[in-house]
Amino acid sequence: MNQRVLIFDNNMSINKRHNDKGFTLVEVIVSILIFGIISILLGRLIVTGANVYESIFNRKEIKDNLYLAQRKLNIDLFGLRDIQHISYADKTILRFINSSLDTIQYRYQSGKLYKNQNGDGEHPIAQYLTDSTSFSYYTIQGSIISEDPLSSSSLLTIWLVRLDLYAAKGTQTMKIQTATFPQNLKYGVVKD
User: Fold this and answer.
1) With the CA atoms of 125, 159, 95 and 71 taken in that order, what torsion angle do they form, in degrees rounded to the nearest 10?
2) How wide is the angle at C-alpha 45 spanned by C-alphas 128 and 60, nearest 5°?
3) CA of 74: how far to CAs of 163, 178, 179, in Å?
4) Are residues 74 and 57 in contact, defined by beta-carbon separation less than 8 angstroms?
5) Is the pLDDT of residue 188 over 50?
6) Which of 45, 70, 177, 191 is most buried as measured by Cβ atoms within 10 A of its Cβ?
7) Residue 177 forms beta bridges with which residues?
8) Cβ atoms of residues 111 and 129 within 8 Å
9) Which of 184, 186, 165, 28 has the alpha carbon at shortest distance from 92?
10) How many CA atoms lie within 13 A of 9 on its CB side?
11) Within the chain, what is the greatest distance between any pair of CA atoms?
12) What is the spatial distance between Cα 73 and Cα 41, in angstroms, rounded to a whole number?
């Protein structure tokens, strides 16, 4: 039971003493507001941290993906047997025979760059690519060969192969260009 006792002190003022235990409604509401504000701030901090992690992870994955594709293409093009062994070239496909007499084809389609060696099936070597990804070909004078696909006579004038890789994942985008002088074409050497 609640008992209220009135006590007179020396100054003849009345002090009320409550025997109630617990918090007042105001104290509870203030506590809930403070807890809510702290929870919102912590939640935003956690979400921001997760977004930053995802962004860094996506950027690293794109970068590794593009550099691996670039490296594979450069290695294969350095092994190109000679200029007559480029059998097909357009904006999305490059097919050639290397010095080991392997037929190698690179093809871009639907966001992926595929490699096919000796008809063993296409294997994706890069993903997350955009439709801006393309091959381009240049002559010894530095002019671009604009035919698509290249004719037999244009294939014989290729001096430089350039691949523009554009990738996007989440909010991250990246572009890498690789320009390769196939090893046996760099000095105009044709091997038999």
Assistant:
1) -20
2) 25
3) 10, 8, 9
4) no
5) no
6) 70
7) 164
8) yes
9) 165
10) 6
11) 121
12) 48
Question: Could you read off the pLDDT of 38-47 as tens digits, one per residue?
Answer: 999 999 999 9
Task: Please report, for the chain, the start and end positions of each structural domain, with discontinuous segments joined by +.
Answer: 33-186
Residue 168: burial class (beta carbons within 10 Å; 0-12, 13-18, 19+): middle
Decide the pairing of beta strands 172-180 and 86-89: unpaired
Determine contact, residues 176/66, Cβ cutoff 8 Å.
Answer: yes
Contact 179, 162 (CB under 8 A): yes
Burial group, residue 133, by CB count within 10 angstroms (0-12, 13-18, 19+): buried
> Is it the case that residue 3 has pLDDT exceeding 60?
no
Q: What pLDDT, on a 0 to 100 scale, did the predictor assign at position 189?
A: 41
Q: Which single residue is written with the structure tokens 């099936």? A: 121
pLDDT tens by residue, 120-130: 889 999 999 99
Structural tokens at position 29: 């509401």
**Cα gap 1→180, rounded to integer Å:** 92
pLDDT mean over 160-178: 89
pLDDT for the residue 13:
54
